[in-house]
Amino acid sequence: MPYATVQADSGLSKPVTILTLRKMKAEKVKFVSVALYDAPLAAMAQKCGVEVLLVGDSLGMTVLGYDSTIPVTMEQMIYHVEAVRRGNSKSLIMGDLPFMSYATTEQAMVNATRIMRAGAHMVKMEGGAWLADSVRMLSERGIPVCAHLGLTPQSVNKFGGFRVQGREAEQAEQILADAKILDQAGADLLVLECVPTELAERITAAVSMPTIGIGAGQGTDAQVLVINDILGLTEKPPKFSKNFLVEAGDIPGALHKYANDVKTGVFPGPEHTFG
Ligand code: KIV
After folding, report:
1. Span 43-63, mean pLDDT?
2. Residue of the CA atom closest to atom 8 of ligand 1
């Protein structure tokens, strides 16, 4: 069944929960996510109908000037989750667990608790089947988890650069298998970053949790972009991103156009995707 074409809300009327997102997946209505890091933009995103805010560890690169997400600390994540939560009372807020803060299940428990206490509704962790025990443990104890597969930037040194993942058949099958395992373990959302469109479609059909794509084509249940890319602040924007400020003229207009283009299936176009 194709996705429904709906216009973006002109403001979220009630809080978004994981149940809202599961219902949207079931009804084939796309939802929208933005990675952002501060209260004023979080408030604006609420007014523009952005259902999910990601306080991503991308803040290491977009705000703090590092060349990867590796240096980001728990304290920096907590500071920004608190700020975003103060600006927004309706979107579902996901907080990233930074590099090596969830290497063991015990670390995952301690640090996910800190992110939740800072105001997040959900934590995000990068990795495949090895994370299943942590996902299960957090989920059983009341912490929703967003998994993240494909190009997982915390593994940039292992990948040898920021590269599309899952182009070879064996790697694609591995990512699909990981997604199914994390779904079974109780993950509530899945970010798919920089994977071929066809693989993202297969994964979206195979798992019960909603999928959020970035550089993963049209076939995911939602899209996420980093606010710096939406607003044209990135010096060398990635292929999968789009500067919405150019056409829209102001920041609320850019956010609203992004949300609307996702919901009506205009974004991402073929020029933003990988084969
Ligand atoms: O940290 C982040 O902003 C992310 C998105 C790019 C998905 O993980």
Report:
1. 97
2. 56
